[in-house]
Amino acid sequence: MLYRWFILPFRRSIRNKLILIMILISVVPLIVVTILSTENTRKSMESEVIQSNITRITWTGGYLEEKFIQLNNLIYTILISNTLDEYINKMDGSTLSNQYNAQRSIIDTMTSVYYSGNNHLLGIQLYLKEKNKLFTINSMQKQISTPPQAPRLWSEVASSGMSFMIKSNESDPTKFNLIRSVNRFENKELLGSIELQVKWQMMDSALDLLQSEPNYTVFIANHDGDIMYVPEHTDQAEAFERVATALKDIESTESGPGYIQTKESYVFYNTVEPWDLKLVKVIPAKYINQSARTNLSYGLIVGIISAGLSLLIAVILAWSTSKPIVSLAKSMRGISIIKDREPPLSNRMDELGFLEFKLYNMSHRLREYIKTEYSMNLEKKTAQLKALQSQINPHFLQNTLQLIGGLAFSSKPEEINELIRSLSQMFRYVIRGQNDLATIQMELDHLNNYMHIQMQRFSPRITYEVKCDPEAADCRIPKLTLQPIVENAFQHGLDKKSGDWRLQVHVQRNKQGVVIFVEDNGVGMDASTLVELQKSLCRQTNQAWNIGDRIGMNNVASRIKMHFGLQYGVTVESTPGVGTKVSIQIPWVKEGDSSYDQNNNR
Q: Which one, out of 254, 297, 361, 452, has a CA that is 20 to 30 A from the CA of 156?
């Protein structure tokens, strides 16, 4: 259907080709320019966005580092206080009053630090392992307690061997904990930990520096790739989908600012040193492609308008230009009925007019030449076919007569009579009738007479089988098609094989007409011989028979092509040591088809 409606009209009409060419000349450059312009716009936009966001994420990473440094300074305020140092190192054996005063001094220091946190600091906890004391400061309480077991975050710091950790608050994702170990100055012995509970909102002022494109996503992740904070102004459902994709992309990235481009987004990242955090910004790719799509849409509108105008101009020009060419083409189609008359049909003086004049000038000679050549070839082919039909293999006749002579001394008269009858019917089939075509059933009967003689010669080692579709029995086929192929199977396949012989002939219908398979279990043929044979069978030739004393496979193939056309003929398949299969393809031509009868009775 595609070929019929879209390809065939352009192959048959030069007018349609001219129209198509003119449209392509006008529209294709416009489309190419539009696509290139769109791509350049997209690349320019992409470069600008990448450079801008690399700069922004570098600044933001530095700003976040300052925020964490401020929090770390609050912790150091407690760590370097004399009160804490004295409580840890000098209170052993002191009075309860002195210990109580030292503890109150620590609480006062922590309270001072807590209120200097600018509402972003939610609480402070100091845990001292040796004394098993937990100091807690928040908006609800100020207390010193002796916990039944060490706090969980302290255990994580102790087991990890790290000097600090930043952990998300499991009960409230808007908070995080900054934990730093308390170590003895002289030998770095782990004495405890200080934990700050901080609002993530403290980082929003830094993250606001990344506001540039619409529908972007910003988040902070730890070194394990776990999301720690996504600002509240971000669409959470869409954000977490982008975050999951972005985290996979940046797992193997190096420290420092950079970006990764994926199919759906641009992922910008920066490492917040030395806190081992990743600052990530994700921009949808559709944002960058949006301006390119707008440019492309305008280009397509202009292209469609240009295509319409080009089509109108092309039709007018192609019609006027191709009119004499179309007229000449019509004359060429009708060359078989051109009569002898004054050739010029127009007053054109250009090359097309000259071609038209010469066409009509040579038409008479062409008709006479074709008529003469056709008659000569027809007579030659008819003579060749008659010569082929009159041939019979003298070796086969000699062997048959010797077989009959031998049986005269050892067999019954009925068996000898059957052999003589089979040989007689073979001769009668070869020489009788003027028609070059026979039915498949007649060919099978002739083959059965041939095989009756061969089975008497080679019995009991040969097995012969015939299967024929009843509908195909009346189909027309050139005389002496099957027997030469079977004879060829004996000479080149079975005679050279030891053991039992098997020969099968199957006739059946297919889409192209009728196919006949002749298969033997002989020695087969090698690949090079098979290739040469296949080439000779496919070769287009007017020669119906070759030099020799028998009708060969090439003769059969040539006769089939001569009668029915080049699309029919003989094909061969063969495997060394397995056997050979010959396929004969002929059209479905029934007995009494007038078109073939007239051709073959000339």
A: 254
What is d(CA 280, CA 210) in angstroms, rounded to the nearest whole number?
A: 10
- Cα 322 from chain centroid (whole Å): 41
Q: 317 Cβ partners below 8 Å, 6+ apart?
A: 18, 22
Stronger pLDDT, 340 or 310, i.e. the higher one: 310
According to DSSP H, which parts of 182-235 are helical? 204-207
Q: CA dist 230 to 249, 400, 410, Å?
A: 18, 102, 110
Percentage of the chain surpassing pLDDT 90?
18
| Structure-token pair, residue 202 | 């403290």
Q: Burial letters for 385-403: b for 16+ Cβ neighbours within 10 Å, e otherwise?
A: beebbebbbeebeeebeeb
Number of neighbours of residue 28 by Cβ within 10 angstroms: 11
Amino acid at 158: A
Convert the pLDDT of each residue in 389-440 to its tens digit.
Answer: 555 556 666 667 766 766 666 667 787 888 888 888 888 887 775 677 899 9
Distance, in Å, from the CA atom of 468 to the CA atom of 384, rounded to the nearest integer, reads 30
DSSP calls for 253-264:
PPSSSEEEE-SS
Taking alpha carbons only, the member of 417, 426, 476, 474 closest to residue 446 is: 426
